[in-house]
Amino acid sequence: MAAPESGDGNNGAARMVTLISSDNTRFEVEAAAASLSQTLQLTILDGGGGGGDGIPLPNVDSATLSKVLEYCIKHAPAAANGGAPNATAVDRAELERFDNEFVNIDQSVLYSLIMAAHNLEIEGLQSLVAKKVADMIKGKSPMEIRRTLGFPDPTPEEQAEMNAHMLEYGWAYE
Amino acid sequence: MAPPPPPPPELMEDAVGEILLRLPPDDPALLLRASLVCKPWRRLLTDPAFLRRYHADYIVWDPITGDEQHVPDADIPQSYFNAAVMCAAGAGCDHRDCHGGPFLVALVGTDEHEWVTYASLYSSESGEWCEPSELEFDYDLYVDGALFGFERPERDNPRDFDGTALIPAGDGLTFAGLTPYSRLHLWSLQMTGDPDQVVEWTSYRVIELDTLLPSADIRSYHQSLIGVAPGPD
């Protein structure tokens, strides 16, 4: 584990930390961006992740981590402003545009992001990806929802149970 | 197009609540349909704790017109909270003809773990809450022209409000919070009538209620602020 450091001793440059993905790729990123993760924040506050040490993230692969960091880097300045009373409407619109673009991705990537955001406790990202999936579900029947999300077809037991509940609600199945 | 990949099984356990929480509440049938998707979803969607979180939005009701408007949940902690609704027409409005018109909702909430208090403002015109701002506490107090300093209480956190109130005042709003040692903190918020306005709370007064309450008997009881009536300055 990373040994505590007193700081990088360089007040001019932003402090950097290193994150190591499950497939052993190292990512160097500003501490402020990585600290959007509640999970990493304490380690970073304790001085971890600097120098040659790096913080290992055994549950996040490099493709997912690079995507996660793209989000963190973009959102770090606004977060550093403490939610930014001085953020302009233009800044907010730009972040919103970024967010919309950001979740316009393959479903498997989306799932990886959900898990990573959950494990790393990055609140904004959790909310963003969860909203995306919720939008995919809107207006769909239970079967359509299963297909959209890639669930396997229901087993006969599951099917029977669904039918029973449906009768209870008095609705057509699809 | 290839069928979508199956979600990882952990997704169902950990993050699905976050997803289902974000189903739009304006379509109740959607929750029922979602509850038919599979057993874990059904379990979650019938869990009272989940339903409490899901319905955590606000309704602004106009008793004159019967109009109901849904206001989304604000992204601030609400272990303790207080809110006020105001006409958004600004200082010039005499409130005779503004029913059903644009409104503002001010919300002040405290996090029970960190005891930090935040304020945010919702505009019905933009349909959004502004970025929350943190209310700072000042340990100096300025009462009736005299400045007092006092030591930061060691054990009791002054952010631990024993009740809060939001009071429309003139063109703005006053937030009152009672803290331990019977200190009533007052902040003010000036409205500009501009929907893009930023919430800026200014601490303007701290009143030591112990010096005002009539008898020692009353002072020995636990005190809690439940409301404030605006009066002449």
Q: Considering the protein shown, what is the CATH homologous superfamily of the largest domain in chain A?
A: Potassium Channel Kv1.1, Chain A
CATH class of the largest domain in chain A: Alpha Beta
Q: What is the CATH third-level topology name of the largest domain in chain A?
A: Potassium Channel Kv1.1, Chain A
- First CA to last CA of chain A: what distance? 53 Å
Kindly give the count of domains of chain A.
Answer: 2
| Secondary-structure arrangement, i.e. CATH architecture of the largest domain in chain A | 2-Layer Sandwich
Helix content of chain B: 10-25%
Number of domains of chain B: 2
Secondary structure tally, helices of chain A = 8
| Sheet with most strands: strand arrangement of chain A | 2-1-3
Percentage of residues in strands of chain A? 5-15%
State the end-to-end distance of chain B: 69 Å
| Low-confidence residue ranges of chain B | 138-158
Organism (chain B): Eleusine coracana subsp. coracana
InterPro entries (chain B): F-box-like_dom_sf, F-box_dom
Domain F-box (chain B): 13-52
Pfam family, one (chain B): F-box
Short overview:
Chain B: Pfam families: F-box. With 174 residues, chain A is mainly alpha-helical. In chain A, 55% of the residues lie in helices and 7% in strands.
Explained architecture:
Chain A: InterPro entries: SKP1 (IPR016897), SKP1-like (IPR001232), SKP1-like_dim_sf (IPR036296), SKP1/BTB/POZ_sf (IPR011333), Skp1_comp_dimer (IPR016072), Skp1_comp_POZ (IPR016073). Chain A: Pfam families: Skp1 (PF01466), Skp1_POZ (PF03931). The complex is a heterodimer of chains A (174) and B (233). Chain A is mainly alpha-helical. Chain A folds into two domains: 16-138, Potassium Channel Kv1.1, Chain A; 140-174, no CATH class. Chain A has helices at residues 31-34, 38-45, 62-80, 89-102, 107-120, 123-137, 142-149, 156-169; strands at residues 16-20, 26-30, 55-56. In chain A, helix 3 (62-80) packs across helix 5 (107-120) and helix 5 runs antiparallel to helix 6 (123-137). The model of chain A is unreliable at 1-10 (pLDDT under 50). Chain B is an alpha+beta fold. Chain B folds into two domains: 1-56, no CATH class; 72-220. In chain B, strands 3, 4, 5, 6 and 7 form a five-stranded antiparallel beta sheet that branches. Chain B has a four-stranded antiparallel beta sheet with strand order 10-11-12-13, with no helix packed on it. Chain B has a two-stranded antiparallel sheet with strand order 1-2. Chain B is globular, with a radius of gyration of 22 Å. Mean pLDDT of chain B is 70; it is low at 138-158. At the A-B interface, helix 5, helix 6, helix 7 and helix 8 of A face helix 1, helix 2, helix 3 and strand 7 of B.
